[in-house]
Amino acid sequence: MNATIVTVITGGGTGVGAALARLLSERGHKVVIAGRRREPLEAVAADCGAHIVVGDVATSAGAKGLIDEAVKTFGHINNLVLNAGVVKNAQVHEMSEEMWRETIDINLTANFLLSKYALPELMKTKGNIVGVSSIASLRSGYGMAPYAASKAALTSLMENIAYNYAPHGVRANTVCPGWILTEMAEQEFAEAAHTKNTTVEAIFADLLKFVPQGRASSPMEQAKPIAWLLSDEASYVNGASLVVDGGTILVDAGMLNLHTQA
Q1: Which of the two residues, 238 and 188, has the higher pLDDT score?
Q2: Is the distance from CB of 50 to CB of 253 less than 8 angstroms?
Q3: Is residue 165 annotated as part of the catalytic site, yes or no?
Q4: Quick check: 25 and 194 in contact, CB under 8 A?
Q5: 174 Cβ partners below 8 Å, 6+ apart?
Q6: Per-residue pLDDT tens over the stretch 53-103
Q7: What is the DSSP letter of 218?
Q8: Distance CA 64, CA 123 (A)
């Protein structure tokens, strides 16, 4: 069996994907990072030597092309991390069909296609898939319907793969991050500040009231649990959803005005 561990990461140019690429490279993985923008991928590759693939994995050709390129380059793949995603916020009655389709295409269909093309290879190596979902898939939020629905469906997809492919030695799990200091989060803060006619700092301060640890996570704090799920240390973890949110989903928002921490 080939001792080289090959890990494919979508959304590898920024945020959690970039942090994971750097972490796994340090741990000896051969890493393939994918995304639609070449420049951020090249910046990460310059740091850690990752192999880059530019393309749209929400298309069958793009998804198959990524897996084929990884196998052509390294001979096999051991891990697939489904990290790429997009947030489109709107109330259901105001949401365009285009907004809905774009969110589902990127957050769900792309991950189905990647899994479809990767699974024959992962069955050979008894490999892993980790889907990066969100606590939005577990709780409701204002205007989050397309994002939450797509992430909940991703979790269900991973659970089904975990069940159906366990006999072939494949594990599939999900991480559900809370707030992370990423490019995507900064964009959300800016949009919310504009809508509410306030500042990004004020939006962020209000947000942290709901986080028991009192801060957002760094991308690396999400990358490390993903790396654990990919490792032999998690060899009996299959079909799990690991919440990494600083305790956010524990909070009863209705009690916040009644009690404050000393």
Answers
A1: 238
A2: no
A3: no
A4: no
A5: 130, 131, 132, 133, 154, 155, 158, 159, 240, 241, 242
A6: 999 999 999 999 999 999 999 999 999 999 999 988 888 999 999 999 999
A7: P
A8: 16
Q: Which residue has the higher pLDDT, 192 or 246?
A: 246
Of residues 117, 147, 165, 236, which has the active-site annotation?
147
Query: Six-digit token pair at 220?
Result: 């690396």
The residue type found at 161 is I
Range of the domain at 58: 6-178+218-245
Within its chain, how far is the Cα of 39 from the centroid?
A: 20
Give the pLDDT band (50/70/90) at residue 201. Answer: confident
Would you say residue 101 lies in a domain? yes
pTM, two decimals, is 0.90
Tokens 């999400």 belong to residue = 222
Whether residue 148 is found in the same domain as residue 189: no
Give me the chain's average pLDDT, please. Answer: 91
Output the domain CATH number for residue 127: 3.40.50.720
Helical H segments across the chain, by residue range: 15-26, 38-48, 60-74, 97-104, 110-125, 145-165, 183-196, 200-208, 219-230
Please tell me whether residues 187 and 106 are part of one structural domain: no
Same domain, 11 and 139: yes
